[in-house]
Amino acid sequence: MASHAANLWVLLGLGLAGIFLMTKKLKKTIKADFGAFIQKLELLPPPQPAPPKAPHPLTGLNFAVSDVFDIEGYVTGFGHPDWLRTHEPSTRTSPVVLALVEGGATCIGKTVVDELAYSIHGENKHYSTPTNPAAPARIPGGSSSGAAVAVAADFVDFSLGIDTLGGIRVPAAFCGVIGFRPSYGVISNTGIIPVSSSLDTVGLFAKDPSTLRRVGLVLLQLPFSVQRNPKQILLADDCFELLKIPKDRISQVVTNSTEKHFGRQVLKHENLEKYFSSKVPSLKEFYSQKINGDPKISSLTLLANVAQILQRYEFKHTHGEWINSEKPVLDSAISAQINETLDMTDKEIEICKSVRTEMRLAVNNLLKDDGILVIPTTAYPPPKLGSKEIFSDDYQNRSFSLLSIASISGCCQVTLPLGYHDKCPVSVSFIARHGGDRFLLDTVQTVYSSLQEHADTVAKSKLSPNAVKQEHSAEAVKEKVSIIL
């Protein structure tokens, strides 16, 4: 039976069959699907309702899902062949996936995730690392690496993943696409393999804000409401100090776009280190319990520590028995984290949970109903494939200091691409209070085009006359690879 999904794969096959992309620099064959997909399948939407009823809201869109979502008849692989081997096919499809199909979208495949969806790097030695279409010599970011790559390479209109400590936001930033981490708990996690139950959130990748909003409203099941403009845009100055690229490459773009749409008076500055120190008292208690008297440690670093401890603790609680019985071969870095003895008392775990509760209240009080917090998504540009940089303390601390803000508070965050710097994708993140998802999506739709225009202007102003800005993933690939027929 001919179908939209089948036709899509035929077209891709005709366009890419027999073509292998290779570079001496990478020493790697790039697959026709950029290594994004682990399984091709087809879930078709129901027939359109008869007029005068409105057509399905997602008609004409296709999508993929990370291999942590259950689909009836398929084993959910969780990024590891041993998990695949030791589990049975799912008997039901995740309600989130069903909602999108019933909304008119066609699901065409499952995508690669990091081993046990645990890291934020995107490298998987068992299924090979998906190729970052925006920067093929760089890691794609994880855990939902394949889902981000599928969108960045234009194989799908949108894709689903899971964000625990950056599983959506990091690959969105590294691959140059939009990534949305909704408020914690607003989308059901039923039919999804958990990583950390108090941090996991179903997330979404898209190439444009219109698609993001269309899909987001279906997932969130929100009633209609009048669009509101933000009354304050808060730039987190201390977070921008963490950047390893010039901070004005991002802050100037946001400032220019904000002034254009909402006026200069809306723009404000905030020091989150000081704010969280005063508004999240359990961080001090955590500090006294776990940190050996380092007076220089910041509240953001403490927050990163809390987030990683919660992830490790909850992951081991859920999957420790399987790991102990099956003894899967794991990447050494992931294995070290998972198998590290957690010398945590019940009281210390309760302190971490108190931090989580206080963080949500603190961020909600800071932003209220009409505020947007602006931070860098990641401190570093995407590291090179195989780089040891991702294991350094500096990389880890800077990364999780930024990522833990939304993860711990449970607030919603959107990662937005802002062009390139030194041939690597650049991004910025907007955060709204918990439950402010529609407000955040509306704000993104309002400012997105302006952000891209100003990003282009700022990037060109920094370039030498002979430099050429990369604007499309296809151009990035063409520059870095040669095509061998």
From TrEMBL:
Pfam families, A to Z: Amidase
Signal peptide residue numbers: none
InterPro entries registered for this protein in UniProt: Amidase_dom (IPR023631), AS_sf (IPR036928)
Lineage top rank: taxon: Eukaryota
Alphabetical UniProt keywords: Membrane, Transmembrane, Transmembrane helix
Domain Amidase residue range list: 55-212
Residue stretches spanning the membrane: 6-23
Name of the protein in question: Amidase domain-containing protein
